[in-house]
Amino acid sequence: MPLFKFTRHGGLRTGPSPHSPLPWIALIALILGGVALAFAWLAGWLGKDRLTAQRFTDAIEATGAAHPGFRRAHSKGVCVSGWFAPSAEAPQLSHARAFAQPRVPVLGRLSIGGGNPHGADNSARVRSIALQLSSDDGQQWRMAMNSFPFLAVPTPEAFYEQTRAQIPDPATGKPDPAKLAAIQARYPSARAFAQWAKSAPWTDSWASTEFNSVNAFWFTNAQGQRRAVRWRWQPQAAPRELDAAAREQAGVDFLANDLQQRLAQGPVRWNLVVTLANAQDAITDPSVPWPAEREQIVAGVLNLDRMQPQDQGSCNDLNFDPLILPDGIEGSDDPILAARSAVYSQSFNRRERERATDEAARDNQQQVRP
Fold first, then answer.
1. 300 and which of 86, 143, 189, 247 could share a cystine (Cβ 3.0–4.6 Å)?
2. What is the mean pLDDT of residues 344-356?
3. pLDDT attached to residue 81
4. Is 362 within a domain?
5. Does residue 209 sit within a domain?
6. Whole-Å CA distances, 84 to 76, 78, 172
7. For residues 256 and 242, what is the distance between their CA atoms, to the nearest angstrom?
8. From the candidates 9, 67, 74, 95, which is the catalytic residue?
9. pLDDT tens per residue, range 46-78
10. b/e map of 175-193 (b: 16 or more CB within 10 Å)?
């Protein structure tokens, strides 16, 4: 007899005897066992060769110099805030409150790729946006998006392999070109990504940069229709391409300087463009782009009107976990999406400990001063 069954009124009722504690004991044991296994996996306790969030974060840290208290990736950025205004078409996609509330507060972060919090804007090929939309029903929608339209590799194991290939050789201080070449030889998507990096335009601003979800998600509307989607923030600002000379002249902090100047003139805006998958499209492989002719719906407009240095802004205390989602939006079974969530948590916890240690050290120094 099954452990659970539904009554004719739709309520949940336990097994053969409503007074027997055995089903509940079994259920509690099952839940606790699952939680223990999850923690063991994330901590790296199950199988020394298993790929875990801990090992993955270690590999990311090994690709560059240590910067305690900062994000392990996309370390340089600024905090931003504003609001999201959904379109009239948005509720047909999802019953998430963010698509029905007229104005949704937004807190976020604009950043560049790399693990150096003092990196140069004019040499960073990748730009990113991370956002938290907080609707009036108390739910949050967090997202972390990038300027590239697809990933270079299809699986977490390949992503880990790619990350390790970027670890500098102690003899040269640079990654081994043979290891990087081996990644491109093994994965066609890595070769396509390299081509994107060479040919995609360098735009003059975060405001003119398009950002992509890359991973797929599921939207469910009020009628119960469930569709696989990817989304992107399409800039309303007209892009201006920078050549190598213009980038050199722009300087190492030009993105933040440019954004500050734009915000002095008014909000900076992006359209939320949702792409609907067809049955044959890859849902669990973010290295495969979807065809450009897929149905697209403009679901609203992001308006950013303020910025702060990240060490002074509220975004510094946020983990932009892409699996923190409201009702009406679900993550897909893409294993890279799950890996991102786990690694973000690992990275966040490490930098929070580092910041706490640093604050405690400063407090001790102040106490011992005469």
1. 86
2. 94
3. 98
4. no
5. yes
6. 24, 19, 47
7. 16
8. 74
9. 345 689 999 999 999 999 999 999 999 999 999
10. eeeeeeeebbeebebbebb
